[in-house]
Write a structure and sequence with these properties.
Blueprint: H1 4-41, H2 47-57, H3 65-79, H4 82-104, H5 108-131, H6 135-159
Length: about 170
């Protein structure tokens, strides 16, 4: 009887972990949607001029580091063709939400998607950490490695028949 309790608590812990990852993926999709809508709202504006107005409103010198950085990114935003980026954003949001739904429902395909899509980001996150070392960048990398490792372990268990969840 003592052996059954860990056996029953393990699937609950697994389910909680999958649900947490699913919620995180859904939030990433929601954040991408909010960012996309924000960018679409700027479609008919000169973002550089808006950034300058913001700087002047708060009496910030455009020659200082952070205000200058804001102007730099405003110029980059002006250069992006948002109409061509919209399908990419929609695809990203769709994948995040499909992954979230599949993980919530404990689907094998969603575990594969989570493992593979997470693994694709690891080299980029390593490069970013090397270029800009910091606790946040290190935390993002470690969290992503944790998710990919967890998903890989779940897939290994599925392939070796140690998990009976339907897909």
């Amino acid at each position: 009887m003592g052996e059954e309790k860990p056996h029953h608590s393990h699937p609950d812990a697994r389910r909680r972990a999958l649900h947490a990852i699913a919620l995180f993926e859904a939030v990433k999709g929601l954040a991408a949607l909010a960012a996309g809508l924000g960018l679409l709202g700027l479609l008919h504006y000169d973002v550089h001029r808006l950034a300058l107005a913001l700087l002047w409103r708060f009496h910030l010198d455009p020659q200082m580091h952070y205000p200058e950085l804001l102007l730099h990114y405003a110029d980059l935003l002006n250069a992006i063709n948002l109409r061509t980026m919209a399908p990419v954003a929609i695809a990203y949001i769709t994948v995040r939400w499909l992954e979230a739904w599949g993980l919530w429902k404990e689907k094998a395909w969603a575990e594969w998607l989570a493992a593979l899509s997470g693994a694709l980001y690891i080299p980029l996150e390593v490069a970013h950490l090397v270029h800009r070392p910091g606790l946040i960048n290190a935390g993002v990398l470690l969290a992503n490695i944790g998710v990919v490792t967890f998903m890989a372990f779940q897939l290994w268990r599925r392939l070796h028949g140690t998990h009976q969840a339907e897909s």
